[in-house]
Model the fold of this input.
Amino acid sequence: MTILDGKKISNEIKDEITLEVANMKERGEKVPHLAAVLVGNDGASLTYVGSKVRSCKKIGFESTLIHLPSETTEEELLNKVHELNADPAIDGYIVQLPLPKHIDEEKVLMAVDPDKDVDGFHPTNFGKMALDMETFISATPFGIMELLKRYKVDTQGKHAVVIGRSHIVGRPISILMSQKGEAANCTVTLAHSRTKDIKELTLQADIIVSALGVPRFLKADMVKEGAVIIDVGITRVSDETKEKGYYITGDVDFEPVSKKASFITPVPGGVGPMTIAMLLKNTLLARERNSNTK
Ligand code: GUN
Done:
């Protein structure tokens, strides 16, 4: 069994980007600038956005955190989005999800300039991704593909079962894995909450991508010997004995499942760190693409 070490690979990617940024600086070029918009004080979102901004600093990017109060109106947020679209200093930006309930998420994501949409959430970019065109691929599915590539996991002609049909992970990864190419060419089954017998499907899977958010959902008796296991779940479970008052766990019952798996991602330290690395990669791409037009 091989651990798919997302922390290690994400550090390699960040080192590669650091080098590119240093070269850009040496050539007197503007370095990539990522902005992140956070509305409200959701604990997990604060952690993620803080981590994204810290990573920017480490690798030599410029970064701007725009932290708005939870009472921010939809109109105020849309104004901020328009401002970022028009700001030539910003190469790419993200609006951290979830947004407060009184704000229409779709409306906000639609307002983001697709050329600055380093999250790849805009329909233009999602559509391009589905059509194999050059675009920004959402960081989490992009990170999973990169992890599979760098560990040279054989996916060709394999049966991949994706659990979860979210717009951010399940849906896009099911498309990417079915496409032609490295870490792809899979026969994909997309399972979700209405799927009749998930265990019957997962037992047939050569590769399982679980993006459900249910702690320890995937048990060893649901997994075939030698399967590749990708755990996208990151759930905070309350635990008073921990310093932070919680611990992080994935969708996979790691210890018993790892005994059957050929490759497996840990939580934490698997897909999570890859997501940040690929967001940075997208921001670098946004900078390079922008330099053609500005
Ligand atoms: N919320 C959970 N994951 C993500 C992500 O990748 N991007 C943004 N913007 N919000 C998220």
